[in-house]
Amino acid sequence: MHTDLVAALDIGGTKIAGALVDGSGRILLRAQRPTPAQEDGDTVMRAVEAVLAELSVSPLWAGTSAVGIGSAGPVDASAGTVSPVNVPGWRDFPLVSRVRRAAGGLPVALVGDGVAMTAAEHWQGAARGYDNALCMVVSTGVGGGLVLNGKLHPGPTGNAGHIGHISVDLDGDLCPCGARGCVERIASGPNIARRALENGWQPGPDGDTSAAAVAAAARAGHPVAVASFERAAQALAAGIAATATLVEIEIAVIGGGVAGAGDVLFVPLRRALRDYATLSFVQRLTVAPALTGTDAGLVGAAAAASLGRHGEAAAVVSSRS
Description:
Elements: E1 5-11, E2 15-21, E3 27-34, H1 41-56, E4 64-71, E5 75-76, E6 81-82, H2 95-102, E7 108-112, H3 113-124, E8 133-138, E9 142-148, E10 151-152, H4 183-187, H5 189-198, H6 211-219, H7 223-247, E11 251-255, H8 263-276, E12 286-289, H9 296-309
Parallel strand pairs: 1-4, 4-7, 8-11, 11-12
Antiparallel strand pairs: 1-2, 2-3, 5-6, 8-9, 9-10
Helix pairs in contact: 1-2, 3-9, 5-6, 5-7, 6-7, 7-8
């Protein structure tokens, strides 16, 4: 009988995934629903409740002591609310109190999805054994999280480490967040693809205009595709170097779909980092691909719940709302 399980929720614009996770990070049971992202808030919440209901009918549920949520952001862990950009029906939505009710009153921890991925990578992945780390998700958006002094550092609202909205181009394009020249506006998958198309790259017969298609073209030597990834790598390097200069991280871990481009991204990224991370105390910075893969959100949400339950990361846990 498992007696120390955590229920984990990974909430994004495409899917709501749930799992029961044990104390060593193993997923014992899964449930999933598509996110009805364009529907009203209560309809989205019903999908979350359906995932929890599927988990709670298992005999394993009796050993579950907390719920961890990693959600697309912004989140506000101090208020227990979420306002995911890609779920318009949720604005200041009281997710923590609704999940607590659906989970029979169990304690609930909430973090942003970038912080969840960071918790997973520090517990199980490429940042394991490092006391100071930046972990990033580079996909449709660019998110991230920090480990400082050996502990997850979510910040008061659960959004610390959100590197996607550091400005690296003072006169750059307007970002949907309202600022200019953000890392995300240059380095996210859709923006890599947009820039390649604007500069003359054309998709193959299948019409695939994704960043993965641009990466394939870059691997084949297409100069416009190569240049678009180099520009993304430069933006990421500038953001990573700024973070390292500010808080002295030892490793930057990069996950998400765009990291799947492999050397097309990592070779120019490591090269650009030498141009930006120039001070003596940031020159030894390691850059590594993430290891926890598609389960990072679930494993990280479980880690955040465990931390909150043990009192190590009280800022993660919301008891209000």
